[in-house]
Design a protein that fits this description.
With 269 residues, this protein is mostly helical. The protein is 66% helix and 0% strand. It is globular.
Length: 269
């Protein structure tokens, strides 16, 4: 009897192992929620169940994707750092050239992060606690890219999270003559969101960037909105509460002596 029970357990284990990842994630949702609630505090770790959820997206049904999305949002303290780590693996080419699975998965990840930042208290603080250049730079490329959903959601994330520590990445891209009109408008809006508290070095970089963008812009549809955003960006920067204060050392990791003359390369990621 014991042997028969053991064989039954082995067969059950084998079935679980070969089950689709999407089904595994759905079955594990309750366990994942309990784990998230049991964790003390918030950190920047990489959660196994979150990773499995993200890997399931390509084969999941619409109903399963909705269930996964709800779990990711509900358990954001655990899922957010893992999704940020996934962004670090974003392909270095424009999303329009990606395969369907990569595009679908990254669009899903970015949309869930946007939803978390828009709806969960302290989520922006956790994002800033866990981010680095490997998180921000891919999002900047996405915010200026050709895939509409990815571009808009990435821009929304950056508008919530870009600050004095990393705005230089956004300003560098804005100086690119080859940026699209939509990409330019997105990045100006992102810089505008933090300009009212920009420190001295960043105020100077913002004003120089505005001059460069205006020189690069032609005459065409959609530029009127960008010009208004540029005006607002400059106005906010010149009235910044920190405009006369040098960047504090704690915020100076990337933007203190940023080289705006370096060539933008996706392969630098």
């Amino acid at each position: 009897m014991a042997n028969l029970l053991w064989l039954s357990l082995q067969r059950l284990t084998k079935k679980i192992i070969i089950a689709s990842c999407a089904s595994f994630v759905i079955l594990s949702t309750a366990l994942w929620s309990d784990t998230a609630r049991a964790q003390a505090g918030e950190g920047c770790g990489n959660d196994v169940l979150t990773r499995a959820s993200l890997d399931s997206i390509g084969t999941a049904t619409d109903e399963q994707r909705i269930s996964v999305a709800r779990s990711l949002i509900e358990n954001w303290q655990v899922s957010l750092p893992t999704m940020m780590a996934a962004i670090e693996t974003m392909k270095n080419t424009d999303a329009s050239t990606w395969g369907a699975f990569d595009r679908q998965q990254m669009t899903f990840i970015v949309s869930i992060i946007k939803a978390i930042l828009a709806s969960k208290n302290r989520s922006i603080a956790l994002f800033r606690q866990c981010d680095n250049e490997r998180t921000i730079i891919p999002l900047v490329w996405a915010a200026r890219g050709n895939e509409t959903d990815l571009r808009l959601n990435a821009a929304s994330i950056l508008a919530d999270t870009v600050d004095n520590t990393n705005v230089c990445f956004v300003l560098h891209h804005l100086r690119d003559r080859d940026i699209s009109a939509n990409g330019r408008a997105n990045l100006v809006g992102i810089a505008r969101a933090m300009a009212s508290y920009a420190y001295k070095e960043n105020v100077q970089a913002i004003m120089e960037t505005i001059d460069i963008v205006q020189a690069n812009m032609g005459v065409g549809e959609g530029f009127a909105q960008t010009k208004q955003l540029l005006y607002d960006l400059g106005a906010r920067a010149t009235r910044s509460s920190n405009r006369n204060e040098p960047l504090p050392e704690a915020l100076a990791k990337y933007c203190k002596s940023y080289n705006y003359n370096s060539v933008l390369k996706r392969t630098d990621l």
